[in-house]
Each structure stands twice: as C-alpha cells, then as structure tokens.
Queue: 2 jobs
Job 1
Amino acid sequence: MALTGIQIFKLLPGTNCKKCGSATCLAFAMNLASGKAELDSCPDVSDASREKLSAASAPPIRPVTVGSGSTAIKVGGETVQFRHEKTFFNPTAIGGVIDDTLSADDIAAKVKRWQALQYHRVGLNLRPELAIVKGGPNLAAAAKAVADNSDLSIILYSSDPAALKAATEVLAGRNPLIGPATIDNYKEVAAVAKEAKVPVWLKAKDLDEVAVLTKALNEAEIKDLVVDTGARTPKEVFKDSVAMRRAALVAQNRDYGYGTITFPCEITDNLALQVAVSAALVAKYAGIVVLSDMDGAVVFPLLLQRLNIFTDPQRPMTQTEGIYPINDPDENSPVLVTTNFSLTYFIVSGEVEASRVPSWLLIKDSEGLSVLTAWAAGKFSGDDVGQFILKRSGIVDKIKHKSVIIPGYAAAISGDMEEELPGWTVAIGPREAAHLTKFLKEFKVA
Ligand code: SF4
C-alpha cells in the first residue's frame, strides 16, 4: 500500500533544509505522496527510509512499455481517476487481431492496410499502434509476417507457452506483450517472459482472480503486467475497468495497480458495436482496446475521441507558430494573421481553404488563447504582432506586397501594428471566420 503524506513525513530528515526545492519536509512529503515530487530530490534521506519510501514513490498504476521505437506504447502510469483533476497521460492503444491461420501474404496486406491508417491533426500523427497476433502452432510465423511488414507494436495471444516462446524469439528487440498468463499456465508464461525480458498480459476469470494472479506473477519476478479481467459483456468490462482504476487509486491496492487490456472483439462480431464498446472503454480507463479488424471508419472516431480525452484540460491545444501556405499562394497572395489556439487555426484555415483564394496564414504564438482572449490578455498586441510579422515569421521573404489582414475582433491593434510596420497596410478582416470567403474574394492586396 502507498504511504500517506504524514507517514512519508515521519521518514524524512525533518531539517527543512529546502535542498529538495520544497519549503519544508512536510511540503515535500505531500508532493511525494501525490506523485508531484521524486524521492531522489532529497539528498539526505537515510537508506532505511529510502527503502520504505520506495513504495510511496512508485506510481499507483505501474507503467508498462509495449513495443519499441517510435510506435512503442505505454499502458498504465495514470495518477488520477478523473481527467479534470490533472490529466490522463498514456492514451488507450488501439489494435486489431491477426489470426495465425492467415497466409503470410494476407497478413502482410492486412498490416500494411492498418499501418496506412494515419491522420495528421493539431500537429500530431494519430494512428492505431497494435497488431494482436493470435493462435498457436503458426504464431511465430504470423508474428514474423507482422514484424516484417509493419512497425506496429505486437501483442502475442496464445494459451500455449511453447508457441509464445517461439514467437517471442522471432520478435527479439520488438518487446512484445505476451499472454495470456492464466491461473493454469502462469508459471510457464512467466518463465518465457523472464528469459526474453518482455511484459506479460494476464487473463483472470474475475477481479478476485486478478489479485491472485498479479501476486503470483510478482512472486515469479514478473512486474510488468497488463490485466484482462476476463469480462466479456459491455456492462461487465466497463464495470471492471472502473473498479480496477478505483482499487488502484482510491483504495491504493497494489494488486490492481496495472493498466488493462480489453477485447471488444470478443464481446461482439459486429464491428460497429465493437467501436461503441471501445469508445466507452477509451473514456473509462482501458489501456488497450482490441478490435477484430480496422479501417478508417472504425479507427478515426476512436482516435479523435482519444485525442480529446488524453489532452491536458489545463493547457489549451495549440498550433505551432509559423507560416501556413493555403491553396498554393505566391508573392502576391494575401497574408492573414491570427492566434495559435488550435480551434482558431482549424476554423480559419478551413474557411481560407474553402474560399480557394491562395493565401498565407500566419499563426502567432499567443499561448493557445483565442483572438479576443489573447488580445485582452496582451498576448496579441499590435507591437507584438507587428514584430512577429516583420522579424520572426519570415513572410517578408515570400511576398512582394506590404499588406496584412488581422481578425475583426482584434481591430483595436491596427494602429499599433501600423507603427511597427512602416509602409504596411493593415486590413481588418471579418469577425467571424464564416465570412472569410466573401472577404478574401473581394480583397485586393495593397
Ligand atoms: S531536502 Fe530533504 S531534508 Fe531537506 S527539506 Fe527537502 S525533504 Fe526535508
């Protein structure tokens, strides 16, 4: 069990020396208990106390890495039950099942199709990350076909430890997640995982058995675990997902302090219903959702939902400051400037694109605030925007004219801008992006 702040405080030196960056040992203890500080920040803690405190500084839900390289995912590692308390860190990974009875050519075609499901939004690349290779005798060959034809991270799914061992050897360096370890085979699966140094997913028959299996696997020195509670109805899998999170964070029960893997594909054959179940599980704590197949209609809504849930609610989403050419602009094309709030960027860029008028869109860093808020907060002032256009944006090297369009809501900055931009014309655009098409079609650069 994790220690409370007061219990931690009693194990600290108590000198209030501030070397850890906290004003007092008590403040440091409270930060440590809530995961906001690292034990290593206190240089004076004794070895005996350090040993006792390691439990307190360990994350309540153990983070486990699956896969390697740029597509590696993290399961677990969450510290709050509700997103508004802080943020969720490790997005629910999405994958599809590869049956080992498929031919190597069919597997190659399938995983290449899955790998192509990539979408660029708000500066991020959204994609499914996983292939779940399922079967027995042909598991190793199927795993090799997936590895040879995609960068997807791989989960091995077989009740036969010998098949898991053979496939794990084929996937050396890819760090697959192997399982299921059950009450009947966990010793053999643990032996394979220990030798290959890979994480294990376990399958229990209910939540009580989850605790039995996590304890048993820990005793077998397998700490990197992902849990399948065994539930195979929408209601039960959702209930278990919430119960696991509550047990780990509220009751601080280490037996349940693991990320989860869920199988909507084993709840229903209907792919649309699998998506509906997955959507509930993305919202409520699943570490991994496994679908029977994936295409754009299946994964895109889940990726967008996931994007929204796993962003920090205390930090607005932003677009990178810079120049965004739209509709293939040239040196005579109009220039628009606005703030870097993602929603502002998407709405404005969408309207400019729809107008078919070649244009340069300048995005200025305004700490993620929308136009009116940024202006009111002094993050989109005339001199600042003028300096950005002239000195930082690089737009003067791309155009032959000297005119810029500012958002209608920021009309008040036009005077200051003209002082910063001698010889420039500052045009005031519409207040609403919906009116940009008409405005741009009629606009003449000075
Ligand atoms: S460094 Fe250690 S002893 Fe010093 S204030 Fe922080 S917790 Fe206390």
Note: The pocket of iron/sulfur cluster is lined by residues 12-13, 15-20, 22, 25, 28, 42, 44 (CB under 6 Å).
Job 2
Amino acid sequence: MSLEGNVALVTGSSRGIGKAIALELAAKGADVVVNYRRQRQLALDVVTKIRAMGRRSIAVRADIARLSHVMALMDRIAKEFGSLDILVNNAAISAFRRVEDMRDRDWDRTLNVNFKGVVWCVREALKIMNPNGKIVSLTSFGIFTYIPRYGPIAACKAAIESLTRTLSVELTERDINVNVVNGGPIATESLKFFVAEARQWSERTPMKRIGTPEDLAHVVAFLCSDEARWIRGQSILVDGGMTIM
Ligand SMILES: NC(=O)c1ccc[n+]([C@@H]2O[C@H](COP(=O)([O-])OP(=O)(O)OC[C@H]3O[C@@H](n4cnc5c(N)ncnc54)[C@H](OP(=O)(O)O)[C@@H]3O)[C@@H](O)[C@H]2O)c1
C-alpha cells in the first residue's frame, strides 16, 4: 500500500491522533499539510519529522470553525502543492458538558468546530481535490454508547457519520471515496477528562488497554489508499473489541 504522489491535509495534526495520522500518511509516501489552531511549535515539529522522511510538508494555522480560515488554508495548499488528494477531518474540541448545562455560546462553538468545520473543510477541499480523492473523518464510540458530558460532541459525530453516507454517493461521479474511522477511547490529552471511565474502558477491552493514536492512524491510512476502494460510505469501528464485551 503506497500513498506516493498524494497530497494530504490532516486537520488538527499538531498533536494527538492527528499527528499520528500525519506521520503515518507520510510514512506511506504522502506529502502532508499539517493544520493547527494554536500550537505552532508542535505543528512545526511534525513538519520536521515528515520532511526527514523525504516528503514535502508545511504547517498552516487555520481555525476550522472560521470559514475564512478554511478558504485561506485551501488557497495555500493550491499555491504550494497545486491540488489535494486526501482530506482527513480530525480536528475537534473537547468542551465536555451535560446537555442541560450547554449555553448558547457552547453550542455555537461545539457545532462550529465539530460539525460545521468539517462541512466547510469538505466543501472547500472539493474545489481543489483531484478525481480519485479520499475523505476520511474521525468519529467516536460515543455516538452509540453513553459517555458522561460527551452528548453535544457525540451529536456532531453522529451527524458526520450521516453526512459521510450521503457524500459517498454524491461524490461517486467524481470518484472520491468517503469513509469514517470511529475510534474507541484513545490515549491523548482528551482522556484526562475521563480518568475514572478510562480505567473501566481499559478493563473492558480484551487486550486490557486503551488504544493508541497509531492504532487509529493505520486504519485511516488504509482508507486513504486505493486498496480500500470497495469500502464506501462506511464507519469502521476501531476499538480493540471494547464494545463487544
Ligand atoms: N481521544 C479519544 O479517545 C478519541 C476517540 C475517538 C475519536 N477521537 C477523535 O479523534 C480526533 C482527534 O482527537 P484527539 O484526542 O487527538 O484530540 P486532541 O488531542 O484534543 O487534539 C486536537 C487537535 O485538533 C486541533 N484543533 C482543535 N480545534 C481546532 C480548530 N478549531 N481548528 C483547527 N485545529 C483544531 C488541535 O490543535 P491546537 O492544539 O493547535 O488547538 C489539536 O491538534 C477528534 O476528532 C476526536 O473526536 C478521539
């Protein structure tokens, strides 16, 4: 499986799962655009690692919750690389609240980053995406099981899964493949909000551990490849078997 000759954008790839995905796509041969919102140095460190693999890479600051930022991000990619082959919708915020505690501004921010941001990235990316492109979005097991204070984000993730099925059909005429990787709990900074739950999740998982960013990144990279061409509009659950226990 090779991604050589592909240009990939991974939103929110300065750290966590996005970083692992950016490095995995580069390891498979892709040139990678590293997007971040705040932590420039972390993004530059990822770029340095990718360049050391012999791939082209740039870091671009853009808040995906702002349409003007997303448009500028795609303009920059068009200018530097000419076009785009792979979009990975990874960026998300962790604003964890019970539904009844969500203020209007919490809903605005949650929806803008976790759902509208994805919609904007897809729409604007399509303007520069080549035929045979790939779109992979990250969602979570929280869409079908209860996680305390995760309801608002889960609702956005469920909407992304629904949108994926529609897009996969609508984009067939452009031969663009659209799928989701639905992750179980993964050891990133987000998990510090779920210390007690993480212990239970780990205990419930057959291998008795929480997933790593790399556990997800391998599957994302596969879905970005031509070998995954017969997987269309699907959500692939990657949870180490936790939800069957
Ligand atoms: N961790 C889990 O257990 C888990 C499980 C299943 C699925 N997922 C999904 O996997 C994805 C990554 O999760 P993670 O745990 O790695 O998250 P994370 O550690 O919180 O990292 C989030 C990344 O997104 C960036 N980001 C946040 N808001 C942004 C915005 N408005 N515009 C651009 N970039 C933005 C952050 O950049 P800055 O630091 O610069 O803000 C950071 O690089 C998310 O979609 C999440 O829902 C996570």
Note: The chain is about 40% helix and 20% strand.
